[in-house]
Each structure stands twice: as C-alpha cells, then as structure tokens.
User: Fold this.
Amino acid sequence: MDKKQIYHSVKLEKDKCVGCTTCLKRCPMECIRVRNGKASILYELCIDCGVCVRICPHNAKVAQTDPINEIFRYKHRIALPAPTLYGQFRNVTSVDHVLSALLSLGFSDVFEVARAADIVSATMRELLKTTTARPLISSACPAVVALIQVRFPELLPNVANVLSPKEVAGKMAKEEYSREHNVPIEEIGAFFITPCPAKMASIHSGRSGYVDGAIAIQDIYGLLSSQLRQPVSEKIRKKRHASWQGVNWATYGGECASLHRSNTLSVDGIHNVIYALEEIENGKLDDLEFFEGSACEGGCVGGPLVFENAFVAQNTVRKLVERMREEDGDLPPALPAPRDDILTDPCAPRDTLKLSDNIAEAISMMERIDELTKTFKGLDCGSCGSPTCRTLAEDIVLGYAKEVDCVFKLKEKVEQLARQMVDLTNL
Assistant:
C-alpha cells in the first residue's frame, strides 16, 4: 500500500501536551519523540494501537472517529455493531435489546459483526486445510496486521488472506439490504461501532471499501443507554442473530475457540504480541497451526474506545455467551458455510522510515548508528526525547537530534568545559 493512502486515527493535540514522556516510554513501535517540550508522532511507524491514547495523563492523544450524524450522508444506513458493544451494558440479557436501540438512533438496519465472525471462522477452518503456512496468523486485528507490515514483513505470507469480520459484515449487509429493498448499493452506508482506533484507521485506509465509517463505542454509549429501556423492535425479533461463537470473538481467544482445533495460540496485549511474533519469526512456534493476536489486553473488550471496564465487559460477554450457548446448544443448529468471496489479496509491507535511498550511504549511516549507540549508557531513560538510546542514535544520524540531547553526554560536555575554564584561570 502506498504510504499516502494510509490513514491514521490517532492524533496529537499539541496544546494539551506537556512533554511528560509517558507515551514515549510506552509506545510499542517507538514512534513518538519529544522535542522542545512537545510530543510528535512518526506516522511511518504508527499502527494506531491506541496505547498512547489510553495512557496519556493529559489527554493529548486522541482517536478521531466519525460522529453519529455522519450516517445521514446516506439515504440508507446500516449499523455494524462489534460484539464488544454487548459487553458495555451490564443489565442487558439479550442482544436484541442492543440491536433495537441502534435502530432508534437513525439506522435503517443492523447487521451483527458477530455473524460475519461466524463466516470468517468457517472460511478460516477451510483455509487451514489447504494452506501450508504455519502458523497461519489471524487477519482480524488491524493493529497486529499493521505491526507485521511494519516490523515483521517476513511473516506476511503467514497472514490469512481473509477479510476481517467488520469488512465481511459491511459487504454482506449492503448486499442483503440492496436485494431486500431494491436500492442501489451506492445509497447504502455501513458504519462500524468500533472499540479501537486501529479499526477506524483500516476503514479509512481503503483496503476493501465495504465499510464507510466508524463510530466509537464510548461516543454512542450514552445514546444507546437511554434507548435500552424501550421494548425490542419487532423488526429485530425477526432477524437471525449470530451464534455464541461469533459473539465470543469480543474477548481474546474467541477466534481460536471457533476453529475447533487444539494446536492454536491466543495472545493479548501489543507488547506480548510483539514477543510472540519474534518467536514465530525465529522459527520457535512453527509447530502451531494458528496464531490469534489481539493488540488490546483482554481482546477487543479492552479497546481504548470502549466505555465499560474491560474486566467487567469480559464478564458480561461471558455470561451472554453462556445464555446463548444454552439456547443454541454447544453447536448452533446451522453453522455458516465458508465463502470464497471474502478471500483477499495478501498484505503488502508498509513503507517505513528509510535512512537513505542510496544503499552505500544507508550502510554507512547504519554503521554510524551502531557506533553512536555504543557511546551511550544504554539506560533508555527517554530524557533525550527519544524512546531508547538506539533511536536517539538514529535521530542524530538523520539530523533530528544532537548528541548533547543525552543528559549524560551533556553532563560530560559541561564537565569538560568546566575543566577547560579551570585550566584557563590557572594560566
């Protein structure tokens, strides 16, 4: 994908930034710098995981999503609720109530992303029978896919070439609504109710075009809460819902569980995912059949844009899944069939920061970075405005920083000047 086409949801509001370096130290991609008392984001490395949004004590990092009134750009409007949405309401005992409440906000129809997750699960089960990639890596979390594109491009052949559930939901929702109501697809807008900025970024980066926007769960929560007291719409009662397996995708491990295979691995939390991908890259986990990585701790219920506490939401989803499981039985009566039309082209690596387009010059710059790195203390304290000593060396070679930005180098320089002053006075 061309660098210009990549949209980023995570933004910096500089007027709120005090240069505290909290984000600098926690960013998993080391894509934040602090210069002149303000943070900046190197978007070539950013994967919109939202860690900085979650941990910034001054709310200087924000995730831009679509406002609810954006849906009225379309004559026909379909809500695509992530299964995480159901975990936001502690007293809701049925998915019907949440879907009905969405209709009251101005949507023409709703289509559960959990239903699309059932389709993706069926397709993935079939893909595991034919692919030789081991482990096959889930393509559901856009932050993890972006992480692989930026940092682990060698693993891209392992990423499943299957559309994510939100894209499948957008595709199916528009097709079904168009047939049922005899309206052109161009008049239909599909909006994902998102728990994280990475999904917003992937939608507006335009890989598939089946979803037209994303509304943050925390932005729509209050409106939905006031509508949940109303009776369930008859229109909703007639719709077929997703299985409990699809709803279970809201928590990490849900996708693996839907594959009905034992040799799989689920990892949550972007730093843990990075460690696991390093193990896969080094060939230490090639005995696995499938790897599910969730950038957020706990899975999507732990997203930066949710309203409810992640542990409470996880428990709410668990109880909802248990009720659905009792109603459906351990396996729903009619699991969906796999679909070839949700297969997609393999992911391409993303353009990242380059030292130089000239190979010889780039090698020389790399050698200089190695030399500089050895001269630093290796404490990775962040006081220089770069996340690590090595990234400071890179910034120096690229002309973005100076050696004396390191407090220890500065101290050495001051001490050297002080000795020179003493020597001069003794002449």
